[in-house]
Amino acid sequence: MEKLWRNITILLIMIVISIPTTTHTIQAYNKLNTSQHNGLYTYICDVDYDGVTKVTITYDSHITSGRSWLLVPRNFTKYTLTVISGSIVHGEVKRAYTREGEEFAFYDNFTFTYLGDPNFKLKLNYTMDNGALIVEPRCFFYSPQIYFNPADTGIVYVYLPEDSKVLEGNVQPPPTSITFEDRKQKITIKLQTNSARIAIEYTTSMPGNLKTYSKGIFEVITPHRYMDIAENLIRTYETFYTNLTKIFGVNLTNIRIIFFAPRMTDLGTGGYIPFNGTHLGNIYLNLLYTRTVQGFWEQIALHELIHHFTWAAGISPNVLWLHEGLAEYLSINLTMNMGWTGALSRVKTLEDTAKQLSGNYGFVQWWNPLQTPSNILSYYAASYMIVKTVVEENGGTSFLQKLFREIKGTTISDTDTLIQYMSMAAGRDLTLKFISFGFKVAGESEIYKMIVEAKYALMKKRWAQPFALIANWLLDTSINMLSSGNIMLATIIGWIGIFISMLAVTLTVALWGGILVLLTMKVRGEDEL
Question: What pLDDT score does 481 carry?
């Protein structure tokens, strides 16, 4: 649905790790007196054509003794730690936490005290299999989490393959320089803080190697390097498919999934499905989210699949609050029931956001696929809480099974009609419940349906300017007024927008034809003079 996913904090890739460590009792990081420490952390990330990234971290200190700390991989790769000069007196590997007190899923805190001889130098090496995500020609590098003792400073060097092309505006944080070294692009970033993630959007001229992995009704389009991810995805879909068919009472056919490497603007987008007003498109999944705790990527993938089930069961995406609320609710519950904890962060995000809304969820009533509100997370949170509340107060999944049996053979494209069917499935009138959410349940849906139909029609008349633009503005204004409860004015403006949208082509031809006639007459008049 027009990239309606996700404002979230990205976690890191999960593979398996073994860590050679020695542990001694040392004060917790937040109790350390770091004022006397002074060193430099240098991060070197060398990326190859498949996105595999060799990471080298060095720490240099020119004082005779001191204490420092940095993040080291916990569970996604093996690492080696070498003392080049000086010695480590004490070292401890312990749980690592953000400034806000949240535990890192993939990193530990390595705290150490050292002696210089006369200087101290430490080196740490490891490899990230998917440091960069690549679907030719688009590539996206996302560094490991950088976090170290605030008394020290840091610099990062990222080396991209020689055929890579990167623009300065596509590097975050902003680079100090972009140069070439040994035929590779070298991006240098002097860190301003002790915590960072380096993101680089770039392209490659190397040819792609897209493959199709098919099994049953599922087909995944992926570069060959991610074939194992495609296989795991289909296994995940197969795990939940039977349960979903029982809930929705339908089977699906020909589901195509396409992997993509993100751009900077896609960092908050886990997946999406285009909708053109008559049918749902392919499922697009962001490969960056494969670098997360088990359950996170799976919940995203299931969310998108559930949109297809909901549409097949008779719910139009124009009732977007139900589509998104149901996709969130079911995908979270299904993955959590498997013991996959990755979805916990999504639950926390939605519930924390919903608390700020104080039960006022009615603003989602007029949400449709043609709208992408700036506060999109509030729309997801409200939709999730509406579905969660209604479903769990009326029998859980058995309520959903009854609902889709009632709907079978029809298409629901407005909230009023949907509430009627929900009431039949619940065996009681749910109108007051939706009114308590802030919904306007009084027959305004007819004008809303006509407005949405007009907006979809305008998608085929974008060239008919300026009337298509005027009609779209009037229709959007009408939807906003419906949301605020100004039904009479919303209806008047909506009808004007619908009228202009119907005549947009005729009005455009008349306008520009008239202008052309006037210009022709003017030119002829000047010629006669």
Answer: 77
